[in-house]
C-alpha cells in the first residue's frame, strides 16, 4: 500500500511538472507579449486582478465538485482550459489587449480548478512526516522547469522575430498541456467526501480559538507580495534588457539557484527549524530588494532574483507545510480538507488583490522608477507579516 501511495505521489509530481513546464514556457512571456502591444503597467495589473478574482471564485464554487464528485476531472478541466486560453491568445494576436478582463477570467478559472484539485490530492497522498519532502520535490520541479522553459521560449522568440516566435511557444505549451492531461488518467480516482459546506471558510475564521485565523492572516501577507511580484519582475527585466532572450537567461539563472536551494531545503529543512528559518527567509526577501534603490537595471534585478531564489524556500516551505498540517490535525479537519483548501486560497487571493490594488492606485498617481522601487520594497516586506502571524504555530 505504501509503495502504491508513493507511485501515485510520483505520478502527481510528474503531472504537476509538465503543467508547470507548459505554464512557464508560455506564461513567462505572456505579460511581455501584452506589454509589447500596449506598454501599460495598469493594464497588466488589471489582467492579474481578473485572474485572481476568477481563481478565488473557481476554488469556492469548484469545492462542491471536488468534494462530492470526481476531483480528477476538475484537475483535467484546469489543464484543458489552460490550453484553451492560449488558443484564444493565438487567435486574437495583437487584439488580446482589448480583452484583458475575459482573458484574465478564463486563465484564472483554469488555474483555480487545476490547483484546487492538485492541492486536495496532494494532501491525501502525503502526511505531516513526508510533506516537507514532497514540497521540496515540487519546488525542485518548479526550478527545473523554470530553468528549461523560459530559456527555450526566450531563444525561440528571439530566433523567430516578430509574432512567429510567440505563436510557436504557445503551440508548444498546448502540446505539453495535452501530455499532462493524458498522463493524469493514470491517477486513481479519489474517494468522495461528504456534503460540501459552502460557508465553512467563514465559520472557521469566526471561531476565536481557530488556528486558521493566524494562518489565514499569514497567507494574506504572502499574497500581498505575490500578487505584484508575480508579473512585475519579468516585465522589469524585459524593460531593462529589451530582449526576450535576456528574460529567458534571467529565469534560467534564478531557477538554477532555486533548484539548489529547494533541493537542500527539501533534504535538510525539518519542522523544528520552521520558526527560525521562516524569519530568516522573510528578512532576506525584503533585503534583496534593496539593490534596486541604487539603480534598476539587469544586474541589480539579477542580484535580487538570485537572492530571492536562494532564500525563498526558507519562507515558503513553512508556509505551505503549516497550512496543510492544519488540515490534518484531527479527523474532523481532514474531513473538511476541501473547504480548508478553499479557505487557504481565498486568503491568498485576498492578499494578492490587496497588493495589486495598492500597486495600481499608486501608479495611477506616479509611475516614476523610484516610486515603483519603493513600492516593491514595501510589498517585499510583507512576508514579515506572515512570520508574525504564524510564529505561535511554528513552535
TrEMBL record:
What residues form the membrane-spanning segments?
A: 42-62, 74-93, 99-125, 137-160, 166-187, 215-241, 247-265, 277-294, 300-317, 346-365, 371-390
Which keywords accompany this UniProt record? Membrane, Transmembrane, Transmembrane helix
Q: Which SUPFAM superfamilies match?
A: MFS general substrate transporter (SSF103473)
Q: Name one Pfam family in it.
A: MFS_1
Q: What is its main location?
A: membrane
The membrane topology of this protein is: Multi-pass membrane protein
Q: Where in the cell is it found?
A: Cell membrane
- Which PANTHER family does the entry mention? INTEGRAL MEMBRANE TRANSPORT PROTEIN-RELATED, MAJOR FACILITATOR SUPERFAMILY (MFS) PROFILE DOMAIN-CONTAINING PROTEIN
The protein in question is named MFS transporter
Supply the source organism for this entry: Paenibacillus tritici
